[in-house]
Structure formats: structure tokens, C-alpha cells
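Contributing: when you submit paired examples, paste them exactly as shown. First protein:
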Amino acid sequence: MVDPTSEQDAPTRLEAGGTNAIGRMLGVLGDEWTLLVLQQALTGVSRYAQFRANLPISNSVLTARLQRLSDEGMLERHVYQTNPLRAEYRITPRSRALWPVMLSIWEWERHWVADRADDLPVMHHDTCGHDFAPLMCCRACGKSVSARDVAAAWGPSGTWERSVPAGATRRRSDSDGAHGQAGLFPDTMTIFGNRWASALMGAAFRGLTRFSDFASALGAPPTLVADRLKAFCALGVLEATENPTRSDWVEYHLTEKGRAFFPVVVASLQWSEHWFVAPEGPALVLSHRSCGAELVATFTCDQCREPLAGHDISIRPSAEGGDLPRGGAET
């Protein structure tokens, strides 16, 4: 007899030559409503009415996102009442493992997006008893890691074409919900919530700077590349500068705000490679220039410098609010 728990804990095996781990990750996480539902689930919310009460979301959108997350193994539906029918949605090992991604998003938006600090949950490290910010470190050498410290190269399953989600990604219209877009992860979704935007950001982290290089690598229409570059400059994650040797060339470089998004990228990549396994091998290989090892990122507490584990983190809705249930899992 097959143990259903083992099946639930197992990664998804991808087809050879198909969408790789990056594409699957973007297809799941590149949607603001999905991130918000997962945020609620990781802090203990499990029932439909609770999600509706906590989020500015319509019934149709919530139903669709819960179904999608259940199909992807991110939530597990349990019927707790039959007349009338009532179900709750429990987090799974796959969704618990997202805690570094969510912490990284919260920390980036708190630091870099105006007026977000008061809206985002406070992260408390139960081990040392302090509120904290997560620090990304290299597991091999223990040093903190920034975008400048890391080299990236395509792995066996890595190409731009295979890194695009299989389903079309789009911006939601007002018809997607009673209140239109949620607007609760605004800058993150500008980067993450559109396949071309996320691909362009990935290209910037890999060192591309020229318009023609972005267009060639992504295989995207020039007008679309121009639109994304303009949006990223307006957001402040890229800045346009003239080439010192060619005044007719404009180059696009990551800003401090753009480079600070790197922990979100790394945490998302690590989650995707663990849970979506291509037979050829990983989509992207990161190496830590400082020690020469393949980068396996760990997240530590900036107060005590001890490694973080999801079960040691408490999440509070605000500095004044009470503790919500812990939503993480051991690493």
C-alpha cells in the first residue's frame, strides 16, 4: 500500500524538455492573490470564511486560487462538515517550505516600498526572543551573500524558453476580484507577477545591461522589453545610464533596491529546484564567488546570527498585534 503522506511530500517530476523548475515556480508564485492566500495559510488561516474576512478578494477568485493551490500540492482540502458542506485548506510540506520566500518578500517590501512597514507582519525569532530581519548566508562558508557575490549559469534544464510558465501569465483586471488588484505586494508583483518581467529581472541579475541583449535573450518583442525596462526604472530597481564610450548606447543597471531583491530570487529558485525536478538536472546553478562553492542559501537571524527555522518564527500582524500561529517548517 502506498503511503499518501509520502506521495504528498514527494517533489513533482517534470517531463524531459518541458517547462523547468523556474517556469513552474513562476506559474505558481507569480500571482499576487496566490501569495496572499499562502501568506494567510502560513499564519494559521485554513477556512474559506477566514480567507474572505482577511483578504479583499471575491468568492470566484478565492475559489479559483484555493483550487489551484490544492492541485499544485500547496494546500490539502479536508471536509470537516457535510451538511452543509464545509472544508478547510491545510498547509502541506510544499507550502511550509515557502517560509524563506515569504520572509524575504516581507523584508524587501518593508525596507524598500514606501508606507509598507506598518502593514507587513513583524517577524519574531523565538530562539533569541527578538524581532528580526532575515540575513541570507552561504551554507558552505557561513558568510552573508549579496547579488554581487554570486555567479549564475544555466544548468542542464535551463534555457529562457523552458523557464517560461506553461500557462499564459497576465495582469489581473478588475473583473478578477470584487476590489480589483489586491495591491498588497505592489513592487514585488511588478517584478514577479508577469513572465516577461521576471525573465528580464533574471537577465539583469545575470549581467545583461543593453536593450538589444535583453530582447535577444528573452526573445520578446522590442516594445514589450521597452515597456518592462521603463517600468523597472520607474520602480527604482533599474537605472538607465549612458555608456561612457558610446553616447548613443543606454545601459540598464541594477540599483541598490534592485540588488536587494536577490534573496527573494534565491529563495524562490531553491524552493523550485527542490519541489520541481527535471530529469536533465537543475535549471540554474549559482556559485558563491567568495568561497567557490555552489551556493546553497541559508537564512539567519540578524540579532543572534543563528540559522532560522520556520518552527522557531512567530508572525505578528503588526508591532501592536498579538501573535499568530507559526506557519513555517523545519529546514
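Second protein:
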Amino acid sequence: MVQHLTTEEVRILQLLRHGDHHAFAQIYNQYWKTLLQMAWNHTKDQSLAEDILHEVFLKLWDNRRNYEITHIASFLATAVKFAVFNHYRKEKNRTELLHSSYRIDKFLDGDAEINRVFLSQYIAGIVEKMPDKCRLVFQYSRHEGLKSAEIAARMGISVKGVEANLTRAIKILKLNMKQDGLYILFAVELVDQLLA
């Protein structure tokens, strides 16, 4: 379910977008403890968790004019999870680089694939929470490659019903991704490719 900004959040984000340090401090003070705990839960390393939190808030400030945030808490939580994921991806690549004869460009190519896997898992998590019909139509279409008529026959609904549910599923996914900031964290092309 997509959450919407409160009037106060809208005001704070407008101030932040215009470079207001007090608005930034207000967001930081409200969320830092929860986000630090989240980073620690993923890393079990206090120093690393603090570094990740610093990185998330630094990016929030640096990109304040570019982000389209529709729910502050969800956006920041997703940013922390992605920062943790990114840290471990870089560590894995660094370790593999030290112990192998692969060239650097192999790892650069691998980054895109890791992003695709992460985003695919994120999408799967949202799909699991969709209403049954909506979820089944999306899975039949995207995972099994069935056409609308085949899905309609399998589910006992009209082709228009299939198309309506598929449209709804994609809308839910895009709204959630926009809410969680994934249209900024990932290239829009990658998102569209995974939903196509």
C-alpha cells in the first residue's frame, strides 16, 4: 500500500529541497536512531553501520533537488538497505579481484547483474503482497511468459480482466519503487526492463 506525505513532511521536504539546514537536521534527528539500528541489524558492525548512515544522509543532502520522495521513512530505509547491499557487493568484488586473474571490466559488467538481481528480489517482495488475482496475472505474464488469452483461459476470467490486473500490478510496482526511491537508486531503464 502506497503511503502519502503528511502536510508537515511536504513542508520539510520543500525546505530541504531549497537547502534549508534546519529541515535536514529535523529529518536526521527524527530518523537516525531507527536507521542506525537497521544498518547494524544488517552488518552487526557498529562502525560500518555508522558509515552507512553517514553515506545515506550525505546522499540525501547532495541529491535533495533530484529526489522525488513520497514517504520519508520508506525512502531512507530503502537507501540504508541499498547502501548495505552496495557495501557487501564492493567487498565481494574486491576480495575476488585479489584472488583471481579476472580483468576489472568483468567486475564492472557484474555490477549491472547484481543490481538486476537486487531489484528482481525487491519486485518479488512487492508482488507477493499484491491481491491474489493481480499477483497471479503478473506471475503468469512475467515469469511463465503466457499471453493474455492464455492467462484468461487458465484463470477463468476475461482477457480485459487480465489486462486490467496486469496494468494494476505494474502501477503498484512503479508507485512502490517511486516511494522507496528506487527510480533514483537504479537506472529507470533497468526498472522498465524488469517490468516489461
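If you have annotations for the second protein, write them as plain sentences, like these:
Residues 96-110 have pLDDT under 50 and may be disordered.
The chain has two domains: 1-84, 102-196.
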